[in-house]
Design brief:
By secondary structure, this protein is α+β, with helices and mostly antiparallel strands. The chain has six helices and nine strands; from the N terminus they run H-H-H-E-H-E-E-H-E-E-H-E-E-E-E. The strands form two sheets. Strands 2, 4, 5, 6, 7, 8 and 9 form a seven-stranded mixed beta sheet that branches. Strands 1-3 form a two-stranded antiparallel ribbon.
């Protein structure tokens, strides 16, 4: 390796280290004023205010909780250099999907978008918090590219010994030329300039999925919508058998 190449490699490593430190500090320091705001809103609701105002504050509090989770994601992303380890265990998918539905329920109502989360009793082996992070970001990404009157569906599909959890929307879709880069940092698709955020959500998805050794993918058609999916290793059901491949989970619906 030449001196120029060695210098470039060293500069790149230093840049990544500096970015990791920045994300760690941001993920920590920004949480303090956020916690104060969350506590103030919660106490205002408890003290008693008109129903309409309580509803609006409830939506604000819900958004703050999501922001808090996203700051946690950024802090974790800064540790994804070997220090972070998944805590895998047997998980009932319905438990994680219920958390995702609670994360976005009020926001969906405020935006006029139908959120359909189909619960499933299938068992998988994963880190439930990391899986929650992935699915929450999938749904959040779908909201960015959906409009009032749109639909977002979260469902499961059996693929032999694996389970595919899929987030489907009927939003603006993604150009084929950008699909390969959609999981890169600061990549936000063709409509990115019209959306809030830095485009870190899907980068967090990719790096978290890599830690778990789970496969994530996207299918999309411009002006028709997108399907983001993650494949999980599936365990035997409570009855001691594997469900047939191709089955689609529609056990419960939350809107």
């Amino acid at each position: 390796m030449s001196k120029v190449e060695a210098s470039e490699v060293a500069a790149a490593k230093a840049s990544r280290a500096a970015m990791s430190r920045l994300m760690a500090v941001a993920g920590h320091d920004l949480k303090q004023p956020l916690h104060v705001a969350m506590l103030s809103v919660a106490r205002a609701v408890e003290d008693g205010i008109p129903a309409a105002a309580a509803d609006r504050l409830g939506i604000a509090l819900d958004a703050m909780k999501r922001l808090n989770s996203e700051l946690n994601d950024i802090a974790r992303l800064s540790q994804m250099n070997g220090a972070l380890r998944p805590n895998r265990r047997i998980v009932r998918v319905a438990e994680v999907l219920s958390r995702v539905e609670r994360d976005w329920r009020f926001y969906a109502e405020a935006r006029g978008i139908e959120l359909d989360v189909s619960l499933s009793d299938f068992l998988v082996e994963t880190d439930p918090d990391m899986l929650h992070t992935i699915l929450r970001n999938f749904v959040g990404n779908s909201f960015k590219y959906s409009v009032s009157g749109g639909h977002i569906r979260v469902s499961c599909r059996v693929l032999r010994d694996r389970l595919s959890v899929e987030v489907e929307d009927d939003g603006c879709g993604i150009a084929e030329s950008r699909l390969e880069r959609i999981f890169e940092a600061f990549e936000r698709g063709d409509q990115g300039a019209q959306c809030d955020g830095l485009g870190l959500g899907l980068t967090i998805v990719r790096q978290t999925a890599d830690l778990l050794n789970h496969s994530v993918s996207v299918q999309s058609v411009e002006n028709e919508g997108s399907i983001f999916s993650i494949e999980l290793p599936r365990l035997l059901s409570d009855a001691g058998r594997l469900e047939p491949a191709g089955a689609i989970c529609r056990a419960s619906t939350s809107q």
